[in-house]
Structure formats: structure tokens, C-alpha cells
Amino acid sequence: MKRKIFFFLITFFIFLQTNAQCAMCRAVLESEEGQETAKGINDGIVYLMAIPYILVGGLGFLIYKKFNKSKKTTH
User: Which domain holds residue 35?
Assistant: First the structure.
């Protein structure tokens, strides 16, 4: 169990610094001086990209738990 948690945390922190901008967005936003807008847009893209994966993962976990629970009650 500790190994699974360790790998989850390592995977989570490896992808913490992710650049998810397309080429056009990057070209327009890199011409700015402060780069604050580019950081904000990049964070927004990453959050929007992560939400479907979290939802599908949660749904998969619930389905797994339901089938695992039904197998335990039959035996």
C-alpha cells in the first residue's frame, strides 16, 4: 500500500509543472512582458484538462468498489 501511495505522489508531483498551451497561444502570450497572463491561461488549460480524468477515475473507482462488494457478499 505504501508503494502505491509513493508512486501516486511521485506521478502527481512530476506533472505539477505542465505547459499545455498550443503554439498559437504561446506565441501571442510570450510577446507580453509580465508573463502573468500566460501563466494564468496555462493553469486554466491544465485544470480544464484534468477534470475529465478525475471524473472518469472516480467513476471507475466506484464501479470497481461496487463489483468488489458484490463478490464479497456472494462468497
Answer: 2-74
